[in-house]
Amino acid sequence: MKSSEDTHYLKGQLQWLMFFRVLVATFFFGIATVAQLRRSESYVTTHLVYLYALTGSAFVLTFIYAFILPYVRRFVLFAYVQITADVFFVTALLFITGGINSIFSFLYSISIISASICLFISGGLFAATAASCLYAGLLILQQYNIITPLHIGAFTATGYEDVRLMYPIVINVAAFYMVAVLSSFLTEQARKSRQQLQRKQIALDQLEALNEKIIQHIPSGLLTLDQFRRIITFNRAAQDITGCTFDTAYMKDVDVIFPGISSAGDASSSPATGMFFPTDFELSFIRQDGRSLLLGFSGSSIKDSANEEIGTILTFQDLTDFREMQEHIKRVDRLAAVGRLAAGIAHEVRNPLASISGSIQVLQKSLQLNAADTRLMDIIIRESKNLSSMISDFTQYARAEAQGKESILLKTIADEVVALFNNSAECKNACSIKQQIPETITVTANRQQIKQVLWNLILNAAQAMTVKSGTIILTAAVVQHGFEPAALKNHIPEPAAKSPIMSWVEVKIADDGCGIKKSEIGSIFDPFFTTKDTGIGLGLAIVYKIIQEHNGTIAVESQEGCGAIFTLVLPDTSPAQ
User: Can you give the pTM of this predicted structure?
Assistant: First the structure.
């Protein structure tokens, strides 16, 4: 008994032994009292006084054992002391109740069994040996009249007076050792079974812990459903993706946590269970914080050994970022194609167009034209200018590389753009601009390109106004280290992702115009996409490419009829505070 587990086992057995001792003593005390009551009216005869004293001693000694048990360190020695005392108590009981003729000699077997339970084979043999010695000594001393046991008639039996002394000694000693061996064998088998069960339980606990760790550390969301489609497993990734805790999801119907999942996943393979087919499907999901996600699910049935469906396992991933990245790649590919086209058009068309426009102007001055001819030539000149402007946009888009960068104050650029806009024909006093940009914010950028970005966005906001009292709000702030701006998430270009810069400048251009339709938001940065009667749809495409070339990103938030907010994110180069 060296391990803490065995020590704990022995301590528990000693507690049960003390309880059992009190129970047995109480039982036999009650039996003795009742038996004596039938034979005599007195409860204070000499032999009963001895019996009362012996029972009381057993109670007192047991209470002493219980008191010192918490302070015991050597439990094996403590067990041997109790077993020895029990054997002596049984011997004293035999002496009080008739010695060789007492009917209580079977109590030795109870003490031996208790010793075997507590100390196994060694304890059992020790108790059997002690019982044999004390029992044989009592009988020998009684046989030769050295001691005279008290005789309580109700607890004595006849038949040993004329029998030779060796017969009861041999019979009882043999019984003692047989009880010791048999009880020790059974106890040892029980201990081995208990140890095997504990080892298997430990292995099972370890396996469950490993399984739980694997489930919790799977990067994909994972949940299992019972036969009634209630959630019984909801791993950490599922909690992170959905924003729901395990306590919130546990035993809830899956449609409560994922509305519409039944119809999205070909709900049931059988009407009785409502299990899912092992199929892949996608589902739109709105978190509690209002963020909209696109989740990709894969489901399969869980079957028992009889091949009966007992549940469903579902794994899912957040495909929102993946879909946005796909759209980003498609947009970049389209922009690259348009850039190549723009370069070719600018080279092939600009020179002939300039010649046509110049020739028309010369003819207009040198010829005597009537009103109709003059109007036609004006149309040619005006449309030539429009075409030239279009080619300029192409050229600017094709050459949007961020060259000639310098450290510039963002507020200075914004002031110039706002002043230019307020004095332009595009303004027409249809809206007002409120600027809230700190004077200390700087960015490293191409001055002319950043002006072009702000101009295009402000112009776009002004054109979206439906009332003359509209307002455009231009703000900027530095996003400190350790905070990831919402607009930057999943949109950081590769050079910026590797950049050591850990703070960013967020520029927001907000308006209260007509807003953007949800179906159009994904296309507004595409070249040639426009919802206006004029323009060719390159304004926002140019903005997108310029910001991309500056290792930044642009995002838009809008709801039809409620205005729009364009958010630019650029590397911060402000002096350290």
Answer: 0.43
Alpha-carbon distance of 335 to 345, in angstroms, equals 15
Q: Are strands 280-286 and 231-234 parallel, antiparallel or unpaired?
A: unpaired
Distance from C-alpha of 349 to C-alpha of 355, rounded to nearest angstrom: 10
The CATH number assigned to the domain with range 323-398 reads 1.10.287
Helix/strand/coil for 259: coil
Distance CA 41, CA 50 (A): 17
Q: Which amino acid is at 242?
A: T
Question: Which of 456, 484, 452, 458 has its CA nearest to residue 569?
Answer: 484
Token output for 359: 């020739």
Say if 221-318 and 323-398 have the same CATH topology. no
**How far is Cα 345 from Cα 329, in angstroms, rounded to an integer?**
24
Superfamily of 406-571 according to CATH:
Histidine kinase-like ATPase, C-terminal domain (3.30.565.10)
Assigned CATH topology for domain 221-318? Beta-Lactamase (3.30.450)
Q: Give buried/exposed letters for 344-373 (b at 16+ CB in 10 A, else e).
A: ebbeeebeebeeebeebeeeeeeeeeeeee
Task: Name the CA dihedral angle for 423, 425, 431, 433, rounded to a multiple of 10 degrees.
Answer: -40
**What was the pLDDT predicted at 488?**
47
Which range of 228-242, 325-339, 398-412, 560-574 scores highest in mean pLDDT? It is 228-242
| Of the candidates 99, 37, 29, the residue with the CA atom closest to the CA atom of residue 57 | 29
CA-wise closest residue to 118 among 260, 226, 9: 9
In this prediction, residue 271 has a pLDDT band, given cuts at 50, 70 and 90, of: very low
